[in-house]
Amino acid sequence: MQSLSSGEPFAQSTSHYEDWMLKMTTCEMNILTSQEFNCAIDQFKDFLLDNLQSTVRFKVVVAEVKQVNEERYMFASSTIGQDDTRLEFTISYDKFYQVPIFSFRFYINDKLDFNIDELDQSLKESSNLVLNRLVDLSIIDHHLLHQPWFQIHPCETLNTLNTHVQSQRTITSGQNYNYKYSISYLSCWFGLYALPEIFPQFSIRPVIYS
After folding, report:
1. How far apart are the C-alpha atoms of 138 and 100, rounded to whole Å?
2. Do the Cβ atoms of 78 and 59 come closer than 8 Å?
């Protein structure tokens, strides 16, 4: 992934759209539908709280599933390191790209900070949290909350996930097929396109089903 300059606004470029359409027409994708996402997000929230780990001190203060019209999403707030650093993030679903989206923002001393250079330095000093500057981050208008948030552009997500989870529908077949596949999919996605990708000090324990 290529890094963006500080504060570069989100824009859906023609090349992003054309690349995405080409992959959609040439591959049979393993897609988590919006209905499957809506059904699984409560269980994934619980799974995430049980399996999220980090080399830096953090405490989840709020974690809940909310809804805007018919679209459900997870909202979480956590203190990182010292209590003056607060991370908020959401997990929602993009119907155009047909993938989950991780959006996040930080409060430093109760001040919302979108200057990526200043934020990176503040996190290092206050929490020993290191931002992966190779990740392509943009400041976008949250598609459900209509507020500015950081986000990884989702144009490559579907193709990457297809490579990683193509065997999951066979592996997780059986009585709890839908639940197992959805949680496995979301767990794989979270590791590749959410908190652990942006901040490598975080990780999620893998899903293991007997």
Report:
1. 16
2. yes
Residue 40 gets the label, from left (phi > 0), alpha (psi -120 to 50) or beta, of: alpha
Count of Cβ atoms closer than 10 Å to residue 125 Cβ:
13
pLDDT given for residue 31 in this prediction: 84
Q: Is 109 left (phi over 0), alpha (psi -120 to 50) or beta?
A: left
Residue 128 has pLDDT above 60, yes or no: yes
Contact 89, 107 (CB under 8 A): no
CA distances from 115 to 1, 122, 137, 138 (A): 20, 10, 12, 11
Tokens representing 166 are: 């193509």
In this prediction, residue 164 carries a pLDDT of: 64
- Band of the pLDDT at 24, cuts 50, 70, 90? very low
| Torsion on CA atoms 47, 206, 38, 45, rounded to nearest 10 | 20
For the chain, which domains are there?
17-201 (3.30.1460.50)
